[in-house]
Amino acid sequence: MRTNVFYGKKTVLFPFMDNDFQYFIDLHRGDKKGYMGKFSLCKMTDQEAKLYIKALLGGYQMFIWTVMTKGKDAKRVGFIYFFDVNSFSCSIAGMIDPEFTKKFVKKFKRGDLTPTEDATRTLITAAFNEFEFDRIDGDVIKSNRLGYAIHRRLGFKQEGVRRKAFRNGDIQDDIIMMAILKEEWNNGEEFTTNSRDTEIYTASKG
Description:
Elements: E1 6-7, E2 11-15, H1 21-29, H2 46-58, E3 62-69, E4 76-83, E5 89-96, H3 98-101, H4 105-110, H5 115-129, E6 135-137, E7 140-141, H6 145-153, E8 157-168, E9 171-181, H7 196-204
Parallel strand pairs: 5-6
Antiparallel strand pairs: 1-2, 2-3, 3-4, 4-5, 6-9, 7-9, 8-9
Helix pairs in contact: 6-7
C-alpha cells in the first residue's frame, strides 16, 4: 500500500517519504482549531513527533500520502491518510495547507470540485477498488462546517454523534461520526455539484 501512486483530476498522491516528516509536523502545529484531533503533535518535540509517526507507520496503523498539485507549478500542499486500518475498513483524514485552501473557497461555494475533494475522492476510490475495504469512516468536529460539507458532497452519511468527545484547550465540541460503504460509492462520479451541503456551508460563512 505504501508504494502506490494515485492520480486524480487535480492532484497526485505520492507515498510518504522521509523528507515529508517536517512538513507533516508543521502543518499539524499550524492547526489552531484542532481539527486534526487525535493526531495533534503540538505538544511534542520534532524528534518525538517523528518517532510517533514512524511507530504508527511501522505498525501498519497508518498510511500516508503526500498531496501534490498537477501542472508546471506542481507543489506539495498537504497530506491524506488512512488510520485505524483493519482487514475490512479504515478511517480517512487529511490536512491541506490553509493558505492553499483559501484559494478555492469561491470554487467550493459554486459547487466545483476542489483539490481537497479530488485528493479525498481519489484515495476513497483506491480504498474500495484496490485495497478492497468495505467501509470508510470519516469523523468530523461539529464546528468544522467545511469538513462536514466535503464529507457529505462525497457521499458520506452521518451515523451518530459523540457528544463533547473533542477537546482543544478549554473548548469542547461534539464529533460527528460519518461513513461510506463500498456499495454506496461509484468512483466519485456522482459528486454533487449543487448539493444542499454546499448551501449550508455558504450560509454559515455569511
